[in-house]
Amino acid sequence: MKEPPSSWEDGSPERLYVITGGRSGPSTSVQLDLVTLVVAKGPPRPEMQPEQASILRMCRSPLSVAEIAAYVGLPVSVVTVLVGDLMAAQRVHVRPPIPAAQLPDLALIEAVIDGLQKL
């Protein structure tokens, strides 16, 4: 007995190929990683792909590429292509996350503590 054909909506490779236009990476030179933050510059337009419109709706406040992928249920590689297209169309703003604070040198901390203790 043959299995019924798979649904177009099941994340099949064919569907992902169509969504990305056959591309495996973003069309922009900006490197997007899992923690790159994405913010929409405006609402989606009627002519947009449903996946891109969904990204714009959810990115009214900053979301990371990993969060977007989880919410839309697509692989990160597909989301980076879509976000890259949105960047090229100037529909989103992306920025790296705020880096963790750098701790000062341990010798400097010890010198400050020693100086405070002498007061």
Beta-strand fraction estimate: 5-15%
Strand order of the largest sheet: 2-1-3
Rounded to the nearest angstrom, the distance between the terminal CA atoms is: 87 Å
Number of helices: 5
Biggest sheet descriptor: 3 strands, antiparallel
Low-confidence stretches: none
Number of strands: 3
Q: Write down the overall mean pLDDT.
A: 82
Instruction: Report the order of strands and helices.
Output: HEHEHHEH
CA radius of gyration is 22 Å
Proportion in helices? 40-55%
Structural class estimated from helices and strands = mainly alpha
Q: How would you sum up the global shape?
A: elongated
Could you walk me through the main structural features you see in this protein, from its secondary elements to its overall organization?
By secondary structure, the protein is mainly alpha-helical. The protein has helices spanning 13-20, 50-58, 65-72, 76-88, 106-117, and strands at residues 37-40, 63-64, 92-95. It has a three-stranded antiparallel beta sheet with strand order 2-1-3. α3 packs across α4 (76-88). The longest helix is centred in the C-terminal third of the chain and has 13 residues, at 76-88. The mean pLDDT is 82.
Defining traits:
single chain; 119 residues; mainly alpha; 3-stranded antiparallel beta sheet; 42% helix
Blueprint of the fold:
Layout: H1 13-20, E1 37-40, H2 50-58, E2 63-64, H3 65-72, H4 76-88, E3 92-95, H5 106-117
Antiparallel strand pairs: 1-2, 1-3
